[in-house]
Structure formats: C-alpha cells, structure tokens
C-alpha cells in the first residue's frame, strides 16, 4: 500500500463523479439508487452507563432489515457500539467511514455519542443524521468556540432531529405549575455536554426560570459517576428546594435519590432529564420512583405512523414488548425514525456514493415519521440552527407505580404538542 | 449545621475509602508488595457478589459471606503461584506484574459482563436513614463505616494477638530469619493476600450497594485506596482508616464549596499531607 498515491478518498471522489455524470446524462437516476446496495452505519451506546438508550437497537435494526427486504430494497447496516465513551464513538465513526465505506452514518443518544460522530463525519465529508440529544448541546457543542455565538457556523454534512432546551424548559415549568410549591428549584447539572448546556446562563435553564419567578439553586458542575451527592443534597435542603431538576445519567440518579432519601431531602417535584427516561432506572429505585417526572419524546399514544411499515406508535411498541419481553422505551421511536429517514433520503439522493448529493437529499427531507413530521430549515429555530436542526414534539410525563408492580409512564403535560393525548394530571411526590 | 453535616457525611464516605485501602495496607505492610490490581480486584469481587445475588436470589450480605472464602482462595492462589515469584530485592517486577494483572482483569470482566454499569440492590436498606440529633445518616453509609472500624480492629487483633499474626510480623521484619524459625514465608504471604481479598470483598459489597460499578471502575478506586494508605502512613491500619476519613472529609468539604472541587480537594489534601509529613501521619517505625 505504501507507494500508492491513489487513496480511498480519491477513489470515492472519482467514482462519485462518475455516477454524478451518469445521473446528469439523462439516464434514470432513481433507478440506480434503487438497485445499488446501500450501506448504512449506525452508532449508539449499547453498553456502559448509557446502555439503556441502546436497548432497542437490535430490535429496530433487525426489523428494519426485514422490512427493507420485503420492500425489495437492498440495505446493509453496520452497527457500532460507542460503549458510552466519546473517544470510542469517534473511533468507530472513523472505522465506519474508512473501513466499512458506508454511504450514510446514523447516530443516536446523548451528546457524548452524537457529537464526536457528527464532528468526525463533517470532517470526512460523510453525510450523517443524528438524533436523541437536545439540539443545543449538539449544535453548539460542536462549534470551535461555543462561547461566541457570532462564530457559530452551520454544517454541510451533519443533520440532527430532536427537541431543544427551550422545549424541555417549557415542559418542565408546565408540569411544575400544576403543583403547589414555593417555586424554589434545585438543579443537578453534571460536567458533560447536556449538563453544561442545561445550566448555561444564556441558553439554559437559569434565565428562563428567573423570568418565570422560580429561584434556582445550582451548586455547580459535578463529575459523572460520583460516589457522593451530600454537597448537593445539603445545598438543596439549605435553600428549601421543593422542586429538583437536572439532567443526570441513570447510575448517578440512583446514587443521588438514595442518598437524598437517607439524608432527609423531601422535594414535592423531581423532574429529571435523561436518567428517568427508562423503566429500568425507575424500577431500580424500588417504590421510591413513584411520581418522579421526566421529559417524554415518544410514547405509544403519540398520533404518528411509520412511513416504512405503516405501523402506528402503539403497534411498534407492542411489537417490541412482544419480541423482547421488556416494556417499551422512548428511543424505539427515534431509532425507527432514523431508518425511515435514511430510506427516504437514499431514494431521493442522486448518487448514493457521493456525500454532497446525499447531504442535499437530507436537507430536502419532508417526511411524516413515527416521531412526527421531519423537515429541516424550519423558521421556528434561531437562524444559525435552521439549516441543520429539525424539531420533534415534546411532552412531559410522570412514572406511576402499577398495582401489580412495575411502572407506567403517564403523559401529564402537553402544552407544546396538544395532539398528544394526556393520561392524567401532575401529582406531588409523597 | 451545614458544615457539621458535610463533615459527618465526609467521615462516612471515608469509611468506604478506608475499606478500599485496608487490604492494600495489609499486603504492603507484610510483604512490601504494591498491588496495582487492587482496585480491579474490588470490582471483580463486586461482580462476584452481583452474580451470586442474581443467581441465587439472596441478600447481598449473605452473598458476600459466600464470596469471601472464594476471594480468599483466589488471593491465596494468586500470591502463591504468581506474585511470590516476583518478590525480591527489585521493587519493579511486582509493580509490572500487578499492572499487567489489572489490565487482564479489566478486559476479562469487560468480555464476560460487557461495559454496562451494575449495581447490587440492598432492598429497603438502601434508602433507610437514622436521625442522629440534627444529622440524618443513611443506614448503609453507617454500616460501611462500622465495617471499616471492625475490619481494622479485627486485623489488628489478628496481627498482634495470634500465632498467625506473629508469623506475619516476623516475616515482615526479616524473611530469612523467620524462615530459619520454621515459618514458610511463601505460605504466610499467600495467607496475607487471601486475607486482603476478604477485606476486598467487604469493600466490594459496600461499593456495589452505594454506587454503580463497571469493569473499568477499578483504577479510580485504587487512587483513593493509595491516597488513604499514604496519608495514614505505610503499614499502619489505624492510619489507613484516618487517611480514608481525611480523604472523605476533604472531598465533601470541597464539594460543599463547589462540586467541581470534589475530586480535586481530595488530591490536594493528599499532597498537603505528603508535603508536611512525607511518611504519612502514623508511619510504622522504620522500614
């Protein structure tokens, strides 16, 4: 290999240019896209502290490949595990691009996974669709200088769909307003992509809470996987915080909540992002998880259908429970939607081997998916993010102990997406 | 009352660090062996307890009772067949071997248990708490601290009151002469490591019920264990307990100022002690 000056990238460029030539020479371009085998790369945290996010991946990918086969589409999916480690995520993204030579990279779950993968793809001119991370940590976190909004630049190859901090703030405060409290909030923001964005004094919780008349106690950023939360618990007790919020990884929530109980912190409301998304975390708290609240991005009651299989949200969730014997989780919908968009994009792409043409097809997407309508370029976002970010609806929910054991996630707040039916009213913690 | 509570929680946290460190302290005191795989052995024991709990559906405390003799056996074999071969005038071989062992254990655990974070569930005991005056303390942290004291007392009794302890001390002082007196140092060393592994099992029980662990969580625990041993003075078990408490209090005090300072404050306290008392607070005579 040593002496060869003809690199893989040159090869890709020449072949891509060749296929672009074919496409423009009057031959039926879509037919090419239909008959060529499409190779997708998929990165998600399947092991490590974020493993709960990746729980549905095997189910979604197997189902997708079956569906593709039935539809006569030739697809191959290379699945990579980020092991919940940002460095590992960047490494497997490189592998997908260089070794597996995929046509499109899909990535999901938390900025610690989406950002390194999106950044790698952007640098390698590989189209990439990302999801399951609020858009601010995704967009701002990848900028050369996150502190200077004037320097922020849109991306050419990386696209993202999910909700943003403005949505979660609206949902959380919507839930809190349903419960009588002293409006004193304690914030648990760790030192990671999400925590820094949530606690940010410009784009995060502090300015909005102040405007709405809440006072926030933020003891400061802490390391993920901390053994001891007494400092935070003390600060919240001192400030008499009746509302606890934050964005914590699942293992830390268990440590925090147990210590809070041990040390006599008794809030009326606890709305925690990220950790409380999953039934496993809530179940690991025993009965202490009753009425904890969280953001809800997807439930089996969301009124959407898959563009691939035509299944409703309920049908997909039921299929998951039947196949795995596990309760449904929110990432199912988004992982499914990633593949819906991938198929739609590859259908429209003029040349599947050419990054720029696939990226253009992503930008032109207008698709009704299992997580709602997806299209980039919405004017509901600030101008700098309009090109690369598409928003999905967000509601709020509470975990309720079922009589036979286990927990149900009940939607209690839908101010931002009234088409999602409510399942009950917000209740205070006992 | 905030500061009082912070210091109190720090002392309880120190109990956990002292448990991490007691095994290390014991092994170093007797055979001058620095075991870099100590943290990974704690995580390994935690996985063993977790396996027993989920396979037999038993209380984690009973599982630890079953795991302790198993770990004793592992420690004995490890010392007798591997680590004894590395002991000698040169301090480098044991360091290198235990460093390698640490990598082997981590990857072995990763291969068999995946990178998932695990936790040992202690049921209702987890969130149970006791009110002590104005303070409220979790039952589990109190048990952890009590166990740390118990371990130190028991090990001291063993070392200073029994024939085995006499053999420990004799080999520690002079291996050659102890050998002439009919003590087989290799067996004594193996027993000591086995005992250290029993302490490791107790540490693993409390680590696993307090926080989550994964195959790569070991080295982080090793640092705290090391710092506790060094702060307390090499070879002194009570010193190790004191070291753990100093580390725990430094961390909670640091966190009370700002959570960003939590980990750093512990390391700073360690460096300060090294600066003022390079041999630790309670060093054992002259080594």
Provide a concise account of the structure shown.
By secondary structure, chain A is of the alpha/beta class.
Describe, in plain words, how this protein is organized in 3D.
Helices cover 38% and strands 17% of the residues of chain A. A six-stranded parallel beta sheet of chain A has the order 2-1-3-4-5-13, sandwiched between helices. In chain A, strands 7-6-8-9 form a four-stranded parallel beta sheet, with helices on both faces. Chain A has 15 helices and 15 strands. Chain A has 430 residues and is of the alpha/beta class. The longest helix of chain A is centred in the C-terminal third of the chain and has 18 residues, at 331-348. By secondary structure, chain B is mainly α. Chain B has helices at 2-31, 38-56, 60-86, 92-113, 139-161, 163-173, 175-180, 185-210, 218-232, 237-257, 262-276, and strands at 129-132, 135-138. In chain B, strands 1-2 form a two-stranded antiparallel ribbon. In chain B, strand 1 and strand 2 (135-138) form a beta hairpin. In chain B, helix 1 (2-31) packs antiparallel against helix 8 and helix 1 (2-31) crosses helix 9. Chain B is globular, with a radius of gyration of 19 Å. In chain B, 55% of the residues are buried. Classes of the chains: A alpha/beta (430), B mainly alpha (287). The A-B interface holds A 47-49, 51, 83-84, 191, 219-223, 225-228, 230-232, 234-235, 238, 250-251, 254-255, 257-259, 261-264, 284, 286, 288 and B 2, 5-6, 9-10, 13, 16, 114-117, 119, 121, 123-124, 126-129, 131, 136-141, 210-212, 214, 217, 251-252, 255-256, 258-260, 262-263.
């Amino acid at each position: 290999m040593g002496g060869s000056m003809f690199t893989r990238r040159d090869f890709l460029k020449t072949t891509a240019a060749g296929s672009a030539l074919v496409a423009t020479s009057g031959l039926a371009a879509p037919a090419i896209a239909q008959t060529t085998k499409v190779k997708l790369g998929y990165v998600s945290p399947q092991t490590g502290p974020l493993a709960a996010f990746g729980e549905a991946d095997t189910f979604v990918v197997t189902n997708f490949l079956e569906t593709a086969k039935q539809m006569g589409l030739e697809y191959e999916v290379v699945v990579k595990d980020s092991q919940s480690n940002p460095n590992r995520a960047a490494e497997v993204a490189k592998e997908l691009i260089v070794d597996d030579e995929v046509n499109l990279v899909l990535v999901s779950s938390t900025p610690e996974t989406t950002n390194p993968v999106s950044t790698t793809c952007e640098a390698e001119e590989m189209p990439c669709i990302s999801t399951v991370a609020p858009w601010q940590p995704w967009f701002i976190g990848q900028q050369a200088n996150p502190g200077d909004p004037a320097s922020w630049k849109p991306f050419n190859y990386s696209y993202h769909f999910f909700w943003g901090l403005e949505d979660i703030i609206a949902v959380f405060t919507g839930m809190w307003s349903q419960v009588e409290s002293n409006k004193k909030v304690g914030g648990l923001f760790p030192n990671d992509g999400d925590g820094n964005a949530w606690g940010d004094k410009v784009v995060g919780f502090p300015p909005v809470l102040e405007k709405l008349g809440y006072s926030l106690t933020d003891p400061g950023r802490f390391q993920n996987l901390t053994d001891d939360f007494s400092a935070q618990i003390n600060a919240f007790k001192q400030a008499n915080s009746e509302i606890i919020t934050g964005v914590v990884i699942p293992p830390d929530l268990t440590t925090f909540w147990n210590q809070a109980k041990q040390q006599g912190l008794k809030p009326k409301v606890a709305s925690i992002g990220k950790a409380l998304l999953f039934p496993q975390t809530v179940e690991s708290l025993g009965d202490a998880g009753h009425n904890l609240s969280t953001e809800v991005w997807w439930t089996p009651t969301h009124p959407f259908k898959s563009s691939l299989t035509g299944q409703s949200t309920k049908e997909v969730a039921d299929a998951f429970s039947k196949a795995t014997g596990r309760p449904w989780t929110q990432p199912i919908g988004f992982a499914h939607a990633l593949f819906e968009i991938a198929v739609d994009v590859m259908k429209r792409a003029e040349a599947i081997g050419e990054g720029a043409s696939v990226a253009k097809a992503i930008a032109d997407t207008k698709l009704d998916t299992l997580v709602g309508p997806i299209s980039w370029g919405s004017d509901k976002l600030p101008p700098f993010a309009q090109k690369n970010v598409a928003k999905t609806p967000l509601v709020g929910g509470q975990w309720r102990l079922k009589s036979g054991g286990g927990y149900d996630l009940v939607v209690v707040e839908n101010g931002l997406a009234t088409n999602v039916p409510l399942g009950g009213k917000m209740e205070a913690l006992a | 009352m905030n500061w009082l509570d912070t210091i109190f929680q720090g002392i309880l946290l120190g109990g956990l660090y002292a448990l991490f460190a007691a095994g290390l302290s014991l092994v170093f005191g007797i055979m001058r062996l620095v075991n870099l795989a100590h943290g990974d052995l704690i995580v390994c024991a935690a996985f063993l307890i977790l396996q027993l709990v989920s396979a037999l559906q038993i209380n984690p405390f009973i599982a630890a009772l079953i795991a302790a003799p198993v770990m004793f056996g592992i420690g004995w074999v490890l010392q007798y067949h591997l680590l004894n071969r590395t002991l000698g005038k040169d301090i480098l071989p044991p360091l290198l071997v235990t460093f390698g062992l640490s990598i082997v254990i981590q990857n072995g655990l990763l291969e068999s248990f995946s990178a998932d974070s695990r936790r040992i569930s202690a049921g209702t005991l987890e969130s149970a708490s006791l009110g002590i005056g104005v303070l409220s303390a979790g039952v589990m942290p109190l048990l952890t601290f009590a166990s740390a004291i118990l371990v130190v007392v028991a090990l001291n009794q063993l070392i200073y009151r029994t024939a085995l302890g006499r053999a420990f001390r004799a080999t520690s002082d002079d291996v050659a002469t102890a050998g002439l007196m009919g003590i087989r140092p290799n067996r004594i060393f193996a027993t000591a490591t086995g005992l250290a592994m029993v302490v490791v099992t107790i540490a693993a029980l409390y680590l696993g019920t307090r926080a989550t662990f994964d195959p790569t969580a070991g080295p982080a625990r090793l640092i705290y264990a090391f710092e506790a041993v060094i702060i307390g003075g090499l070879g002194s078990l009570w010193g190790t307990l004191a070291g753990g408490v100093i580390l725990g209090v430094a961390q909670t005090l640091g966190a009370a100022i700002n959570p960003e300072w939590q980990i750093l404050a512990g390391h700073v306290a360690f460096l300060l002690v090294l600066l003022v008392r390079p041999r630790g607070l309670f060093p054992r005579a002259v080594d």
